[in-house]
# Entry
Amino acid sequence: MASGIFAILDDIAALMDDVAVASKIATKKTAGILGDDLAVNAEKATGFLASRELPVLWAITKGSLVNKLIIVPIALLLNVFFPIAIKYILILGGFYLAFEGVEKIIEYLFHRKHQAGESNVEEVIEENNTEAEKSKIKAAITTDFILSVEIVIIALGTVLDKSLTLQIITVCVVALLATVGVYGIVALIVRMDDAGYKLIKSAKEKGPLASLGRLLVRALPFIIKLLAVVGTIALILVSGGIFSHYIDFLHHVLPNFPSMAKEFLFGLGGGIIAVLLFTVGKKIFGKKKTVSAN
# Structure
């Protein structure tokens, strides 16, 4: 009886060792996507009132966990019964990410002056209406879904030659680490100014701690602006990486280009196509609605 228990414990210990090794490899493989995920979600989690930052971030985090609960079992089932579907899901997700990235660039280049003239109005609307908040949370969770699919698929790809049990545990570990790690760091970023104010107050506005506090407060707006830029670039790079890896004929396009430059061009091109299709579709369906209303 005792020998049987020890044998079970030994099997569990061996399995945990395998999981630790597999999770380490999978985390390394997904490190680039996790970095992009951090940049994208940090940018999407900002722009709220200070009192709403953590509640909004918690809502996005819960949405991210739900995304993982949906994606992980579906990815495992598709990998067993219909593996080709994963490829096309990733490509569609890539077009969504590219669309978001290019749309941000277009808004910055062509609508910045118009938005600057209405910034005060938009701020009042955001303060008195939860619809904008809900819309931004929904957009953040949708983007997280696409990035989560990429993370889960890459993690799964590192353990395809392992047992099903090891696949399930490894993918679940990486998915959980992705959510907790990314949104934990995002929470630290968005509350950086509060930490700065507390340091200033505790040091009675004097000494090195107060100086550090002032640095944190002053640095936050620049970090948020930087994250907005990095997040946009990350969207395009992730989408370009998806196109490069999963659209066969793109493997042989621009063979002498650096991979990052090539992925950026693919993502930019895919985003422009997605924006054009969206704009044309919006105009066509908009006209149909107008005609039917009349």
Q: What stands out?
A: The CA atoms of residues 30 and 151 lie 6 Å apart. The chain has a mean pLDDT of 75. The first helix runs from residue 2 to 29.
